[in-house]
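Students often ask why we bother encoding 3D structure as a string. The short answer is that it lets us treat folding as translation between two languages. Here is a chain of 323 residues written in the first language.
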Amino acid sequence: MEKIRVGVVGVGYLGQFHAEKYAKMEGVELVGVVDIDTTRAREIAKRYHTQALFRHADLFRKVQAVSVAVPTPLHHSIAKDFFVHGTDVLLEKPVANTLGETDDLIGLSDSKGLILQVGHLERFNGALVAAEKRVQHPVFIEAHRLSPFLERGTEVDVVIDLMIHDIDILLYLMKAEVKEIHAIGSSVLTPFADFANARIEFENGCVANLTASRVSKEKTRRMRVFQSEGILTIDYLSQKAFFTKKVSPSEKKGIAQAVTEEIPVTKVDALEAEIHSFLQSVRNRKEAQVSGRDGKRALEVALQIIQKIDEGIKKKKGQTRRG
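And here it is in the second language, the structure alphabet:
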């Protein structure tokens, strides 16, 4: 089997792990890593026995596929350059800064028959993979994605930084159109919203409540799906899933009882699974499991949530001035 030649653009916190996975995979040749921080590029290149490069253009025509893990404002321009040069792209989330940029990337990749995969890696989490088969006609979904404060990712608000993962999963599970969105949020330690809560109503009547925070004490990644058959719990951190359902009342007590069963889960390295999926699409020329259109849907909802938060903040400021 001929090796797929790959590169990584941006080897900061996330990009370094992409380089690590590629370097260890069979059937893959890590041609080079790119970063404008020359010291960082050399450090990662040395660690994974590849070439250090300092411009993404240095990979043109040398690779078949590339991971792009640069700051979001650069996603569009860099991914577009690779598409122009006939290269498949795994693009870290969010897909781009704007819906217009996203449409441009989708259109270009389609016209050239190239792969665009968006890095919503929770789609590959073992707990979700095992539990999604049990999702049937949800009436309410709640998700909590909380983290202690870290300096990385603070160039965007918490909706784009964290909540967008749950938005993507929600849209993937629901298969229904969004009807209405309500949201609140606030800045705590950065100029952007560090806490956000969104209530999303779907055309089929289901309601979802998503909470994201990057100023919490503990790290939490959990979703619960309420449906007539029972309650499905997905814990992304532990990669465990549970289903709680009602059983017939006992003869003695005469009231309904709830029992919880643990769903068998095959734990995986989600990033490794994501990259394997990308490379499979590169080999067989099939649409990515998390496509550019999936990325656009998640970004569209995220931007609406951000707009609602901004409107709420402006309204509150106006009320304060009048008071």
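Translate back mentally: The helical segments are 15-24, 38-47, 75-84, 99-112, 126-131, 158-174, 270-284, 292-322. Keep this in mind for the problem set.
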